[in-house]
What does this fold into?
Amino acid sequence: MSDDNNNIILAAVREAAQPLEGTSVAYDPLMQLIGAARFCLLGEATHGTDEFYRERAEITKRLITEKGFSAVAVEADWPDAFRVNRYVRGLSDDKDANEALGGFKRFPTWMWRNTVVLDFVEWLRSYNDSLSASATKVGFYGLDLYSLYTSIEAVLGYLDRVDPEAAKRARYRYACFEHFGENTQAYGYATSFGMTEPCAREVVGQLVELRRRAADYASRDGRVAQDEFFFAEQNARLVKNAEEYYRAMFRGRVESWNLRDRHMAETLDALVAHLSAQGQEARVAVWEHNSHLGDARATYMADYGELNVGQLVRERYGREAVLVGFTTYTGTVTAASDWDEPAERKRVRAALPGSYEALFHNARLPKFLLILRDGGQVVSALRGPLLERAIGVIYLPQTERQSHYFDARLPEQFDAVIHFDETHALEPLERHARWETGEPPETFPSGV
It folds into this structure.
């Protein structure tokens, strides 16, 4: 990129950037953009940045109190999040948010067991408690599909209560998984390479039977019964999709990625239909990583045949969905060095030259909002493609260019972007020694 072109782009960013420091109405332009939209997809450039979680929560509070949003759907497993849902709606025996978040035991626990989510869950409970008995309570739901065995237990628990004979049939079907000892990867490996027969027929059969009895189960005690049946049905559907996902893992990344994101989009659709059937058109705030919520068609993902939730939601709902991305230039992040390893407080290296993050850093604003929908000079200036950074639950700074950057066209990927020049690590509820001490200053070159 030439210096003249870079200066033109930078001038357009400075002109369009709306500083977010020091005012309670800083997000008013974003609220105006959202308008009457039914979906606000709020991303994150990492799974471990305090500012992303904190500002996402503050935006969501405004969506709930000012725009009537009635659900928060997150990149988490359905049964674990539903325990939180029951707590915030005053339907559980959990004594506080910390206890309600106790279902999140699978790596990476810090994604949902952290201080920001803890505070937000307590806020949701207090907000719901302040509503009248007839008012719609705001719910908290998970969209992901990793919880195969937990979801099996949830289906069986539900059927034990409402139909013991059906529970016996379900146990017989789900016994297909028993000899893998809750090791989903072992199941995927064994079935993919023909070492054992897959459980596809059994899990589909269980979902079909459950749905066949829907009218009976869901009408027994009114709305609570309907919610409990919906919870069980989504768990049964999750088992079906997770069974296919774990087999697909050994057939390639694209197939497994697409299965997962289709499942999350389908779960969102089912949630909206369920909530809307109760009388009021549902509006939902969605919390996931940028890689799931930014339109995949505007990134390298499209070249490989990958899709994502943001793309699927846009295709179905159009301008009823507003996609918001988050970026950072440098700071610290909570992440692991490998899967299933402890959380560490790692240093986020300064963004690479030629990236959107480096460009935003040169705007010399600590925190700002860019509205990208409906054209304008900044949209033309940022059309790219340029590099964009993505840090998941694992951060590998030594191979950052290969591991954490991809090409994207930001104005097509998001309707708005919020940039923080320096960010800080998300604080887990359980802090290990590696997180407490933090990573020492880097001593290797910055351009690797």
User: Anything to note?
Assistant: The radius of gyration is 22 Å.
